[in-house]
Structures are given as structure tokens and as C-alpha cells.
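Known limitations

C-alpha cells in this collection are predictions and should be treated as such. Users comparing against experimental data should check residue numbering before alignment. To illustrate the layout, the record for Troponin I4b, tandem duplicate 2 is reproduced below. The input appears on top and the generated C-alpha cells appear beneath it.
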Amino acid sequence: MYCILFQKTKPKISASRRLYLKTKMLKKAVTMWENEKQIKKDERERVLSERVPALQITGFSLEELQNLCKELHRKIDVADEERYDIAAKVSINNQKVQDLSQKIFELKGKMKRPNLKRVRVSADAMLGALLGAKVKESVDFKANLKTVKKEEEKKEEVTDWRKNVDAMSGMEGRKKLFDAGQ
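Generated C-alpha cells:
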């Protein structure tokens, strides 16, 4: 039984260098994050200034300010109602999707699929399926194949084995075997 011992490989850089690189990366990430926050804030202010004009309330009386606040509250309520309606519709649809997926899961378990039989299809039927019903003529794939006929071995007819033994005996038999070999 062999025992293999693994030694820990020493890191290529020292611990102080690694710590220095980590702190440098963290500082860079913090500055990038702060820049991104500032860009988002500037973008938000720009979009709000384009879409929503600044509110001038310096010349309004008390009644006009109250009417303005009521109108703003009414608009906020309408937006909240629309958001609530949409959220309710989404939750209903999510529940329906969950119910249908549960039914599908149950039906898969109940229904047994029949065992499919292997069917041999001829080459003509495959071509018909691939090319459509337009192909009516049959294609003979074997027509271009070369046929190799086996040579039949010549069988010597032996009627009586004793005659064959007599014919092969002596020097005449050896001469016949020698001639047959050449």
C-alpha cells in the first residue's frame, strides 16, 4: 500500500503584499461605488427636472395651497390604487400558474405512457417522409452496389473410397499430388 503525502505549496506572494493589494482593491471599489451613486443621483435630478417642472408656491394663498395639496393627494391615491390592482392581478395569476403546474405534475404521475414499438421503415418510406409525398418513384440503393459471388469449391466426386486410395497409392499418386500442387 502506497501512501502519498501532499505538501502545501507556498504562495507566490507574501502575506503583506497580498494584504496591501486587497486594501488597494477595496479602496478602488469604494471610489467606483461612490462615483456610481453620484452619477445615479445626477441622472435622477436631470430626469425629474425634465419631466416634472419646479413647483412655484411663493405667490399662492392658503386656499390655493390646500387645493394643490388635495389634488396631489388625490393623484397619489389613484396611482396607489392602480399599483394595488396590478399587484392583485399578478398574485392571482401566480396562484393560477402554481395550481396548473401542480395539476400537470399530478397528471404526469397518473398517466402511464405506452411502450413504443420499434418500427422498421424502408428507405423509400424514409425518403418519402423527408422529401414529402411528391416523391413517388422508388429508389434502388442496391443497384449501384457490386456483387461478389463466392467461388464454389470444386468437390471431387468420390464414389468409392477404395478406388481413390488405389489411385493415390504408389508413385503415380504422388505424381498426381505434385501436379495438382503446381
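For this record: The CA atoms of residues 95 and 101 lie 10 Å apart. The chain has a mean pLDDT of 78. Please report discrepancies through the issue tracker.
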